[in-house]
Amino acid sequence: SGVPLIVVTARGSELDRVLGLQAGADDYLVKPYGFRELMARIDAVMRRVRIQSRQGPAIDHGPLHIDVNSREVCVDGHGVDLTRKEFDLLCLLASHPDTVISRKRLLQQVW
């Protein structure tokens, strides 16, 4: 689903965080947390959602095909499995070919 999901939990082990993100969460926040941190994470997730919605239905570059709506990637017709962050990073880079994207922008829009 395209609904952004932030896991808020008391379970903070690395394994719990990895499993939560692999299950499809866009972010993972461990209690206790501050209100400002929660709001910053919500803002970051919403920025990524807005970027994806502006990109249109597909991005094509040679053998690379990215379906933004279904979050599917194919290279030469073969599906490629990507994590959410990998997909978001690929979309950002592919939607701005021949452009150097700063570390700051990558962190703001993908992480």
Description:
The structure is a single chain. The chain is an alpha+beta fold. It is 42% helix and 21% strand. It has four helices and six strands. The radius of gyration is 15 Å and the shape is globular. It folds into two domains: 6-53, Rossmann fold (3-Layer(aba) Sandwich), CATH 3.40.50; 58-110, Winged helix-like DNA-binding domain superfamily/Winged helix DNA-binding domain (Arc Repressor Mutant, subunit A, Orthogonal Bundle), CATH 1.10.10. The protein starts with 5 loop residues before the first strand and ends with a helix. A hairpin with a 4-residue loop joins strand 4 (64-67) and strand 5 (72-75). A four-stranded antiparallel sheet has the order 3-4-5-6, with helices on one face.
Write the SSE topology:
Elements: E1 6-9, H1 14-22, E2 27-30, H2 35-54, E3 58-61, E4 64-67, E5 72-75, E6 78-80, H3 84-94, H4 103-109
Parallel strand pairs: 1-2
Antiparallel strand pairs: 3-4, 4-5, 5-6
